[in-house]
Amino acid sequence: MDPIDIDLSAPIYPSDGTGVVPTEANERIEAAGGFLPALTSALERKLRKPGAHGDAMRAMFGNDQYKFTGQMPVGYAHVRRDPMGRRDIRIYGHPSGRYYNSAEKFLPHVVAMLVFSDHCWCELC
Ligand SMILES: [Zn+2]
């Protein structure tokens, strides 16, 4: 079965992204398409995870497969840091002004926004 496409930038999904992207000299904003496959993989790993946390995720998402497509959530930006060689990423836009450095860390925040939850368990909230 084909995965269910989720375009996080669609107006049906709420976003608390600030749009503030304080890129430094060695950073540049990248296309969302370079990041969304990693976010999709992070979701797949969470949905396969045994235990209570995985159970909670499966209760929310069921047994379907999902694929993040389109753009980043409104107000969030995928930034590549030091494009010469290193592969560091930063996801800017969190209201705290801090950034995520992996899809794994951004995923909980994305999930909280997707399910309209006030309780976010990401490390920046
Ligand atoms: Zn959060």
From TrEMBL:
Record-annotated Cryptic loci regulator 2 N-terminal domain positions: 72-125
Top-level taxon in the UniProt lineage: Eukaryota
Record-given protein name: Cryptic loci regulator 2 N-terminal domain-containing protein
The species this protein was found in: Aureobasidium uvarum
